[in-house]
Specification:
174 residues, 7 helices
Length: 174
């Protein structure tokens, strides 16, 4: 049965690769502008004047909108996680491709744990809109700060690892 599926899908390898790369781009860049120009700016301005109610409102709005916008990123990631292994299987790749093993290590050890935390912060227990609507101001503040710390820790990792993974996938240097 698996050989039949492989035989049917192999002619579409390049199309599956396009889908994979398209969703990689959606995933890797969908929240960049929101973080850099809105969430980060609003948080840093608020940090200078935490008593300013307008800056508090802007900070909260930016973080809630970030959570909403992360839906694009978090829709793309599962598609990547399906098409990536599919490409590996259809392309008859193996563990001898060192570039691929480095790429997969980055995905497994960095991207997946980051995404699990990010899903939680944006959609589940850490969703700021839901917390605000449940009238839990202390929890809301706590999750604003947790999300900010998450951004501080993961942004440099993502900034360097995403281009590295793209380089490995395209150039296949070793």
């Amino acid at each position: 049965m698996t050989e039949l599926v492989r035989e049917l899908l192999t002619p579409y390898y390049i199309y599956i690769k396009f889908i994979h790369l398209f969703f990689v781009m959606m995933w890797s860049w969908s929240t960049t502008v929101a973080y850099l120009w809105f969430a980060k700016a609003a948080y840093l301005k608020w940090k200078k004047h935490p008593e300013n109610e307008e800056l508090v409102r802007r900070r909260n709005w930016a973080f809630e909108q970030f959570d909403r916008g992360a839906v694009i990123e978090h829709t793309a990631f599962p598609i990547i996680m399906i098409t990536g292994p599919l490409l590996y299987w259809l392309g008859n790749w193996n563990m001898d491709a060192n570039w691929l093993m480095v790429k997969l290590s980055i995905v497994l050890l960095l991207f997946i744990p980051i995404e699990i935390a990010d899903y939680y912060l944006s959609h589940f227990g850490g969703n700021k809109y839901t917390i605000r609507k449940s009238n839990q101001p202390e929890k809301y503040e706590r999750f604003i700060h947790i999300h900010w710390r998450f951004f501080q820790l993961t942004t440099p990792v993502i900034q360097y690892s995403v281009p590295t993974v793209l380089f490995l996938a395209i150039v296949k240097p070793f």
